[in-house]
Amino acid sequence: MSRQLASKWRKTAALLKYPVAAVHIPQTMAFNARNLQLMLGRYGMVYIKPIVGGGGYGVIRVSTSGGSYRYTHMKVTRSFTNYGQMYRSLLRVKAKRRYLIQQGIHLATIQGRPVDYRVKVVKTERGWVFRALVGRLARPGLCVTNLSKGGTMLSGRKALQLSLPHISGRHKRHEMRALTLTCTRIMEAQFPGVGQLGFDYGLDHSGKIWILEVNTRPQ
Q: How much is the CA Rg of the chain, to the nearest whole Å?
């Protein structure tokens, strides 16, 4: 039976110990009023996510510009004139569980819709093997790409070609596979018994690969 780890916090912390992985991880902090204000001041846009949860459940995008604040939860965006007002509203709509704050990455898009990537590996008698490298295109109006939330699956090749036509898709697929193998070794060393892993990668407009999440029970 493959070991499963629900906590995003523990998986992120494990990868952050290794510079080769840490350089690909968006800054992450515990969710509270002070940290959220700090992260918004630093990045302008962040995501808050339940520490335990999958399928895009409970994910909220929060941003600030020109002295106003807004958040998007599913298809609903609310705007506020001050931080305190926005934070109080956010507490009412977020899931009743512990959250983390993740630096917002402006993902490359296809027709204005963000796209990210799922790379899945499983352990066999021959070692770790790749099972998938696919793109996931967000449903129109949503900031999450999960297929369970209406996202569309594309081949990794097509997603890269359409979202980053100026960058070599073959090179990026190779880079994602190499990063996956590196991070898989780290995860196996930190959490003996894991038998399958799903890495969610986002690519920004420059083509940099960001590790958005690691799943031990990938769909």
A: 17
